[in-house]
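Request from the bench team (R.T.):
"We need a structural guess for the complex before ordering more coenzyme A. Sequence and SMILES attached. Just send the tokens back."

Command: build protein-coenzyme A structure.
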Amino acid sequence: MAAVSYQVHCDGIDWAALKATLVEDDFDNERTPQEYEASFRNSHSVCVALSEGRIVGTARALSDGVCNAYIVDVWTHSSLRRQGIATRMMGLLLGRLQGQHVYLFTDDQVEFYRGLGFRPQAIGMSLVVGSWLGH
Ligand SMILES: CC(C)(COP(=O)(O)OP(=O)(O)OC[C@H]1O[C@@H](n2cnc3c(N)ncnc32)[C@H](O)[C@@H]1OP(=O)(O)O)[C@@H](O)C(=O)NCCC(=O)NCCS
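Reply to R.T.: structure attached below.
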């Protein structure tokens, strides 16, 4: 396996390449490259995994920096799964969220998140204001 490095900032990220990779790996949710950049730059913490110059993983956290945080965009490229990449990305994010209540909205990948210490919650509500991404 080629070496994987992890960066916790947005400098040098090719957002069009990220979009293309997510489309190819079937994990794009219709954001434009500019919207991906805004999502990541407006986050409290980000982690991007890189291998041979290509983005192979992402994770980011929204947070008030005090008590509440929310995890989104956790993804490892299909070809590199089960090698600890998402665990490492989540570790780097969670390390910046000490003392905070960290939320997650998913019923996918429960075993992965359980392994990190997350526990299911019985309640939750959500709303998309207007249409998705305003499109
Ligand atoms: C979920 C995801 C991010 C995990 O990435 P990853 O880099 O493969 O995760 P890791 O290698 O760090 O996995 C750590 C552990 O989590 C558990 N795990 C990870 N993927 C799993 C799967 N598909 N089924 C069961 N357990 C899984 C295993 O215990 C694994 O340890 P092991 O490989 O030693 O058994 C990746 O499968 C992915 O990108 N999926 C598609 C996108 C997605 O669903 N993201 C989450 C949306 S909320």
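Two things stood out. The mean pLDDT is 94. The first strand starts at residue 5 and ends at 7.
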